Amino acid sequence: MNTDSRALEALPPMDDQAAKANIRAYWEAEACGTRYADTAAARKDYFDQIEKARYELEPYIPEFARFARAKGKRVLEIGVGAGTDFHQWVKNGAVATGIDLTDRAIELTRERLALNGHDPARVDLRRADAEKLPFESNTFDIVYSWGVLHVPPNPPRAFAEAYRVIKPGGELRAMVYHLHSWTTWMLWVRHALLGGHPFRTPREVVFEQLESPGTHVYTRDEAKRLAEKAGFVDVKVATRLGPGDLLDIKRSFKYQHPIYEFIWKLYPRRLIKGLGHGFGLYLLIEGRKPA
Q1: d(CA 224, CA 126)
Q2: 284 pairs with which residues across the strands?
Q3: In percent, how much of the chain has pLDDT > 70?
Q4: How many structural domains compose the chain?
Q5: What whole-number distance in Å separates Cα of residue 83 and Cα of residue 77?
Q6: Which of 10, 47, 64, 111 has the fewest C-beta atoms lying within 10 Å of its C-beta?
Q7: For 224-261, how does the pLDDT look when each residue is reduced to its tens digit (9 = 90+)?
Q8: Please, how many CA atoms are within 13 Å of residue 17, restricted to the half-sphere of its CB?
């Protein structure tokens, strides 16, 4: 694969198709954000619960995405998940297109739009691969992706595809995961140090343990180079604390042992917040395609 070896140092080789099948299976089983909603709730309440949790845990998403300024613009969202952000694009008048690797995400997003009075048949939603976008070059004013472009086996290819489909003068707004973060270090302690494998690198641990298999993490400089290598200019990268850094997340099936309940209760959230966003899991990337 044509990858940035500095960003993927010491990671095992992957077969693209097998990797994508594993990624798809993971997110088909649990679409992003659905963990925070009661499946027994009425369907509109269910989606409202997902939205409430998303913007409480990640309150900087609206400011970064700038949904309210998208009226009339052609927007592509890569990785729609449960449709929370995608609904914001549609509600604010964007000409929105959304893709996801999973059928589940597309179904949920269509359902969400219908429940909020939007005709999903008038919106372009489809299952597609971020490494091979099914769109003409120079199509979109904005490509937006929150926590998705670090998931494909070949992130540089996904960034190059985003660049290709953006119009000259258009913008990329994407979040990928940060190597030097509280989340990464906690995973390393749990799965490398305490797991009896202290010589495993943080990248290797994240690759296997953070969300879907094969997740990549980057330093700030690597993230900037990733966007610039694709062709973007005026690239800015900012860090933000994620709910995983603060252990504000609802525990997944991996962390149901009583010891984790104890850790969640004692975790020094106030201290982590007080130290600022420098070691946050989220790297917020903005760049522009030259006009």
Answers
A1: 29
A2: 175, 238
A3: 95
A4: 1
A5: 10
A6: 10
A7: 999 999 999 999 999 999 999 999 998 888 788 899 99
A8: 0
Whether 9 has a pLDDT exceeding 70, the answer reads no
The pLDDT assigned to 6 comes to 45
Left (φ > 0), alpha (ψ -120 to 50) or beta: where does 66 sit?
left
Note the Cα 271 to chain centre separation in Å: 26
Strand-pairing partners, residue 194, are none
Residue 13 has pLDDT above 60, yes or no: no
Q: How many residues does the chain have?
A: 291
Q: Are 76 and 55 in contact (CB under 8 A)?
A: no
Instruction: Round to whole Å and give the CA distance between 143 and 78.
Output: 7
User: Does residue 3 lie in a domain region?
Assistant: no
∠ CA 132-236-127, nearest 5°, is 20
As a three-state string, the secondary structure of the chain is CCCCCCCCCCCCCCCHHHHHHHHHHHHHHCCCCHHHCCCCCCHHHHHHHHHHHHHHHCCCHHHHHCHHHCCCCEEEEECCCCCHHHHHHHHCCCEEEEEECCHHHHHHHHHHHHHCCCCHHHCEEEECECCECCCCCCCEEEEEEECCCCCCCCHHHHHHHHHHHEEEEEEEEEEEEECCCHHHHHHHHHHHHCCCCCCCCHHHHHHHHCCCCCCCCECHHHHHHHHHHHCCEEEEEEEECCCCCCCCCCCCHHHCCHHHHHHHHHCCHHHHHHCCCCCCCEEEEEEECCC
Within-domain flag for 280: yes
Euclidean distance between CA atoms 35 and 125, whole angstroms: 23
Instruction: Give the domain CATH number at 60.
Output: 3.40.50.150
Quick check: 12 pLDDT over 80? no
